[in-house]
């Protein structure tokens, strides 16, 4: 406890000295640094901030020092995140590599794979894409068909992946591929790392309701993937896939409450956009919706905190399994609430007549619809809770 | 405040659970109801609960208390919620003890707290005058006459009002009819001349009463706290009560939920357990998610009572509102998912449903606490 508090003081002091003022502002999507060959810093300050954090080992504070991490405990890492949040410090680096692949590779990868890929994530050299979903395999992920034939020193990959976020901007992609056509569907899947520069890999962007083309369909046409890019054992990729999904869901659960964004909190927006009557929001319906949302977020924040404490003291609890569902549903509620509070000012699509924040609110509202679909939909989360937490019998199918 | 129970706290909870399962199962409440028991609880059981120290969990050792902290009391309340134990625990050990602890003079504390700690003296808070929780809307008057006060008015929904030895009466000695200023608290023996009491039989088969005060004469030394400044005591006492009742509601919801999930695995229709139907699975899973949220909120609210009392008002309202919603949803679903048997008196689920409705009104319904939360947030 005592040690942690003195660590906190150190962190606070270091951040104070090293985080440029411009990097303590809410961030827009355009200002995020995602690394990789196409990665661009939005300003010199952003570069400086990233480099300082990298040199300090705090891009991934809990990863081992030998791979460029900070070698710190979960508690210490949390202190860093809390202190960053306290001053609204931006995340210096974004990415699926940092959030999802890195942790899974540290657990399942061999020494050579870790050496090749982990420092490259921290150093901003590679931006990763996630190749899980296929046109015919979404929620029922294990039915995936993208095929990898074992050719001894390499695999020959054919098929396609869909909804691959930012695939057109990524350098590498981790893929679930079918390496055994028969038997139980989960037992014929392998986890491959594929260089997107390899011949035969191509992408087509897909436009979204938010107006962006965040994701792509990714095609594999006779792509040769060296055997050393297989993570874990052949046909055992499903375990790696699931471990990675745990990180993905945790990340998504915390998206609403954690990351400093350009968008305002509903209760702040209320002060700007709503009429007050004797210190109370005059519109009874909106006041009631707002208090429901605030109470829900208060409860969610306390539950994140409890979940962390339980994990660090080795107490098992179902809290972690319900957070993706709760967090992403709350994020959608928040965006609907913001639109309601902004009224017609929240409906601007682009151009003049609206502030940038107002325009962002609408775009974020459109994006929020994806939160309860990506990473395992809300319905799938409820299936998981029913099965894993409540032990309810499974339906005849599935 | 780590929101994880320590060894001692887990032990207290487990002891309470074991004791109540064998000494006060739901059938005990059913029996009290069916025999129309005039007291409304088993004195023998209450003595045993007191021997376990439950009447004195939050009281300092100098008064014979366990000094275990409010979180401990919450854990016991939660276990009591699981089996719907009828006892003076809430009115005496939570509300009464807190009032004396926070507002009693040292003479009052020395005289009364050891008896409360031993379970020998029971208390009841005579507050409400309206059919919704309106703690400052007090028309009962306290008029000074020499060294005495004369109390006049009527009270309703007084938990344990017909069985408690000592009443804590909230009366107005000054001020407007619906403001916190000018309220005073008095310790009034229930048997005192001018106090009349009518037990009200409520949905939950537990104890409540209406009280009438006609020229009840009490000495000034019977005042709790300062004249006209009763709100300073009452406000934190109510918040403690809200958190403790929320803990009871948690136990009530958990028990009803667990019994329902067990039934989903056991009952078969269409050749399969009904728990394999996704319509029921998803509703059950959503309740599990709500339970997780309520668990964190409750632990935090119980912890701040001792550790950060400044945060108590907002957390008490958060906890009471969230638990109100949880217990309503869970008890309704418990009935629905049991089908026809769910609406029979033979099944215990009905007792959970009814107790839930009473606790939802006690010390503030959902609307009251949402409004208060919004106000505390500044909108
Ligand atoms: C913003 C975003 C980013 C994404 N990024 C990536 C990425 O980078 N890489 C990647 O591989 N994938 C990505 N995805 C894909 C995502 O994982 C899938 O969209 C998701 O798994 C759902 O699959 P689907 O779209 O095929 O929907 P379907 O599985 O067809 O689902 C349609 C509807 O049916 C419901 N449903 C399905 N099965 C059940 C069931 N058993 N019980 C009850 N209801 C059910 C679903 O909940 C949903 O409401 C992304 C998706 C989004 C929205």
**How large is the radius of gyration of chain A?**
22 Å
Secondary structure tally, helices of chain A: 11
Strand content of chain A: 5-15%
Class of the largest domain in chain B, according to the CATH hierarchy? Mainly Alpha
Largest interface: A-B, 46 and 38 residues
Q: CATH homologous superfamily name of the largest domain in chain B?
A: Butyryl-CoA Dehydrogenase, subunit A, domain 3
Number of domains of chain B: 3
What structural category arises from helix and sheet content of chain B?
alpha+beta
CATH fold description of the largest domain in chain A: Butyryl-CoA Dehydrogenase, subunit A, domain 3
Enumerate the strands of the largest sheet of chain B in spatial order, edge to edge or round the barrel. Answer: 1-4-5-8
The value of Rg of chain B in angstroms is 21 Å
Q: Judging from the principal axes of the Cα atoms, what is the shape of chain B?
A: globular
Please give the largest β-sheet of chain B: 4 strands, mixed
Low-confidence stretches of chain A: none
Q: What does the average pLDDT of chain A come to?
A: 94
Share of helix among residues of chain A? 40-55%
CATH class of the largest domain in chain A: Mainly Alpha
Fold-level CATH name of the largest domain in chain B? Butyryl-CoA Dehydrogenase, subunit A, domain 3
* Ligand kinds: flavin-adenine dinucleotide
TL;DR?
The complex is a heterodimer of chains A (398) and B (379). With 398 residues, chain A is α+β, with helices and mostly antiparallel strands.
Describe the secondary-structure layout:
The complex is a heterodimer of chains A (398) and B (379).
Chain A: H1 2-18, H2 44-56, H3 74-86, H4 96-108, H5 111-122, E1 128-131, E2 147-150, E3 154-165, E4 172-178, E5 189-195, E6 201-206, E7 215-226, E8 230-231, H6 237-258, H7 266-273, E9 276-277, E10 280-281, H8 284-312, H9 319-342, H10 356-371, H11 378-389
Chain B: H1 7-23, H2 26-34, H3 43-51, H4 70-83, H5 89-103, H6 106-117, E1 123-126, E2 141-145, E3 148-159, E4 166-172, E5 183-189, E6 195-199, E7 208-219, E8 223-224, H7 231-266, E9 268-269, E10 272-273, H8 278-307, H9 312-338, H10 349-361, H11 366-376
Helix pairs in contact in B: 1-4, 4-7, 5-6, 5-7, 7-8, 7-9, 7-10, 8-9, 9-10, 9-11
The complex binds flavin-adenine dinucleotide.
Flavin-adenine dinucleotide binds next to strand 1, strand 3 and helix 11 of chain A.
């Amino acid at each position: 406890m005592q040690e942690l508090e003195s660590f906190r003081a150190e962190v606070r002091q270091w951040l104070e000295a090293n985080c440029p003022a411009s990097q303590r502002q809410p961030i827009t999507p355009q200002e995020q640094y995602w690394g990789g060959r196409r990665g661009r810093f939005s300003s010199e300050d952003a570069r400086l901030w990233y480099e300082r954090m990298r040199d300090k080992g705090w891009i991934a504070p809990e990863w081992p020092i030998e791979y460029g991490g900070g070698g710190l405990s979960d508690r210490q890492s949390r202190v860093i995140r809390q202190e960053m949040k306290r001053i609204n410090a931006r995340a210096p680096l974004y990415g699926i590599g940092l959030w999802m692949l890195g942790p899974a590779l540290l657990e399942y990868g061999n020494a050579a794979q870790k050496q090749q890929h982990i420092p490259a994530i921290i150093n901003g050299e590679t931006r990763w894409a996630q190749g899980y979903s296929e046109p015919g395999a979404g929620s029922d992920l294990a039915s995936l068909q993208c095929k990898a034939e074992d050719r001894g020193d390499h695999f020959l990959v054919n098929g396609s992946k869909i909804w691959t976020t930012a695939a057109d901007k990524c350098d590498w992609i981790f893929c679930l591929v079918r390496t055994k056509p028969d038997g139980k569907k989960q037992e014929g899947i392998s986890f491959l790392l594929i260089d997107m520069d390899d011949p035969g890999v191509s992408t087509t962007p897909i436009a979204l309701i938010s107006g962006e083309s965040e994701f792509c369909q990714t095609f594999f046409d006779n792509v040769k993937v060296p055997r050393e890019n297989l993570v874990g054992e052949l046909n055992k990729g499903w375990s790696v896939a699931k471990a990675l999904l745990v990180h993905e869901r945790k990340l998504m659960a915390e998206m609403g409450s954690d990351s400093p964004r350009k968008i305002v909190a509903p209760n702040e927006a209320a002060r700007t956009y709503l009429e007050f009557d004797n210190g109370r929001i005059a519109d009874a319906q909106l006041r009631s919706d707002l208090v429901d949302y605030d109470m829900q977020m208060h409860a969610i924040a306390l539950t994140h905190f409890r979940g962390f404490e339980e994990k660090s003291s080795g107490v098992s609890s179902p809290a972690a399994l319900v957070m993706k569902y709760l967090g992403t549903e709350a994020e959608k509620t928040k965006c609907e609430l913001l639109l309601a509070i902004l009224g017609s000012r929240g409906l601007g699509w682009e151009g003049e007549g609206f502030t940038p924040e107002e325009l962002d609110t609408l775009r974020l509202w459109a994006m929020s619809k994806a939160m309860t679909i990506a990473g395992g939909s809300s319905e799938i989360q409820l299936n998981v809770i029913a099965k894993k937490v409540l032990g309810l019998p499974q339906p005849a199918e599935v | 405040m780590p929101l994880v129970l320590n060894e001692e706290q887990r032990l207290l909870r487990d002891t309470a659970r074991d004791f109540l399962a064998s000494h006060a199962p739901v059938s005990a409440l059913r029996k009290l109801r069916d025999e129309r028991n005039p007291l409304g609880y088993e004195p023998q059981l209450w003595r045993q609960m007191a021997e376990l120290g439950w009447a004195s969990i939050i009281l300092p050792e100098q008064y014979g208390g366990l000094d275990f902290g409010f979180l401990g009391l919450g854990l016991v309340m939660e276990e009591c919620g699981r089996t719907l134990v009828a006892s003076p625990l809430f009115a005496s050990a939570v509300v009464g003890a807190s009032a004396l602890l926070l507002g009693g003079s040292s003479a009052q504390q020395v005289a009364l707290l050891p008896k409360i700690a031993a379970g020998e003296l029971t208390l009841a808070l005579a507050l409400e005058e309206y059919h919704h929780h309106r703690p400052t809307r007090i028309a009962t008057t306290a008029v000074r006459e020499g060294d005495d006060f004369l109390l006049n008015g009527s009270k309703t929904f007084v938990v344990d009002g017909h069985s408690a030895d000592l009443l804590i009466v909230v009366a107005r000695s000054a001020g407007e009819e619906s403001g916190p200023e000018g309220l005073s608290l008095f310790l009034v023996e229930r048997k005192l001349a001018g106090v009349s009491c009518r037990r009200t039989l409520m949905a939950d088969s537990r104890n409540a009463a209406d009280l009438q005060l006609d020229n009840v004469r009490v000495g000034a030394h019977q005042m709790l706290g300062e004249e006209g400044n009763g709100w300073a005591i009452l406000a934190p006492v109510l918040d403690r009560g809200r958190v403790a009742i929320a803990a009871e509601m948690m136990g009530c919801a958990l028990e009803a939920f667990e019994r329902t999930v067990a039934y989903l695995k056991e009952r078969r229709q269409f050749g399969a357990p009904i728990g394999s139907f996704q319509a029921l699975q998803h509703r059950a899973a959503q309740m599990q998610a709500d339970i997780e949220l309520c668990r964190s909120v409750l632990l935090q609210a119980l912890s701040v009572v001792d550790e950060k009392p400044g945060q108590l008002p907002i957390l008490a309202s958060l906890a009471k509102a969230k638990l109100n919603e949880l217990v309503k949803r869970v008890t309704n679903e418990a009935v629905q998912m049991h089908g026809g048997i769910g609406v029979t008196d033979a099944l215990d689920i009905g007792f959970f449903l009814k107790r839930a409705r009473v606790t939802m009104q006690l010390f503030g319904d959902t609307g009251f606490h949402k409004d208060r939360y919004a106000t505390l947030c500044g909108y």
